[in-house]
Every structure is written in structure tokens, then in C-alpha cells.
């Protein structure tokens, strides 16, 4: 940063206050490295003002959370399947990045990553090679999802879990 402003200084002070207040907190990891597991979900058109859905994911490594997100989707989706597919696309992008980081650290699992999704239609759309009208609509912006699940990620039917966005 060439020219930090007062706003930057305030942000740094806020971060340092947060760290000071949470020194006793932590994420406990097992000594043995477990595989990377992701969970993804979305709500469908929950926001009544703009009808956009919220995506969420969390990645666990050795029973500890290493990456998570809850964010409003950038588009208005037309179905629950599409909303879940958009969430899975964001999750798959993060899975690719996390797998690359683990590979560079020498901790990558040969099995890749398992991503749990609670929407059966999304799992079918992500794993099938058949192109439907739905996948044509999603393919341009979210084409990485299908290729990710075909290479080193497995999309599996997850438990009927709920993110905070579902409540």
C-alpha cells in the first residue's frame, strides 16, 4: 500500500482489537491429517426485496473449519436447483484453490475433496454429461462446476443440514 489512509489505520486497529480479544479461541486439529470435506447449501430467493438467494459453504480439514463463506448470490435464480448449482460453483472454485494450497504444502489427499450438497437435482446436473436447457443457461458462467466434479471432487448427497441462511 503506497498511501495508507486513516480508514486503513482504523481497519488495522479493529483487526488487532479482535485478535487481542480472541487469543484464547482456536480451531483444534487432529494430529493425523484427514481429507478435505466441503459442505454447500443455498436458500432460494429468501431476500424478499431483490429475490436473490444466499450461498454458503464450509470446508473442513482434520475436523476443523479452514474456509467458509455466506454470501448473497450475484444473480436472481429461477429455481432451487439453479440456486444450489450457483452455490456449488462457488464451492468448487474454493475447493480447487484449497487443493492447490494443500498440494504446495505437501498435504494433498490422493482422493481429492468430497463436497456434500443436499439437492439431488444439482448433483445430477453437475455430474451428468447430458446437456439440458438448464445446464446451457448455467454453463457459461459456472462451467467450472462440472469439470471440477469430473476431475478430483466428488459431489455427494449430504445430510439434511441447514446453514444459518436457511433458518
What percent strand?
Answer: 15-25%
As a whole number of angstroms, the C-alpha radius of gyration is: 18 Å
Q: Give the CATH class.
A: Alpha Beta
CATH architecture: 2-Layer Sandwich
Distance between the termini: 40 Å
Oligomer: single chain
| Low-pLDDT segments | 161-167
What is the fold named in CATH at topology level? Nucleotidyltransferase, domain 5
Total count of domains: 1
Kindly state the percentage of residues in helix. 40-55%
Determine the structural class based on helices, strands and strand pairing: alpha/beta
Determine the number of helices (DSSP H or I, runs of at least 4 residues). Answer: 5
What is the approximate shape? globular
Taking all residues together, what is the mean pLDDT?
Answer: 76
Q: How can the largest sheet be summarized?
A: 5 strands, mixed
CATH superfamily: Ribonuclease H-like superfamily/Ribonuclease H
Helix and strand run:
HEEEHEHHHE
Question: How many strands appear in the DSSP assignment?
Answer: 5
Strand order of the largest sheet: 3-2-1-4-5
What does this structure look like?
With 167 residues, the chain is of the alpha/beta class. The protein has one domain: Ribonuclease H-like superfamily/Ribonuclease H (Nucleotidyltransferase, domain 5, 2-Layer Sandwich), CATH 3.30.420.10. It is 40% helix and 20% strand. The protein contains five helices and five strands, in the order αβββαβαααβ. The protein has helices at residues 6-21, 80-104, 120-127, 133-142, 144-151; strands spanning 36-42, 54-61, 64-72, 113-117, 153-157. Strands 3-2-1-4-5 form a five-stranded mixed β-sheet. Strand 2 and strand 3 (64-72) form a beta hairpin. Helix 2 packs across helix 3 (120-127) and helix 2 (80-104) crosses helix 5 (144-151). The chain is globular.
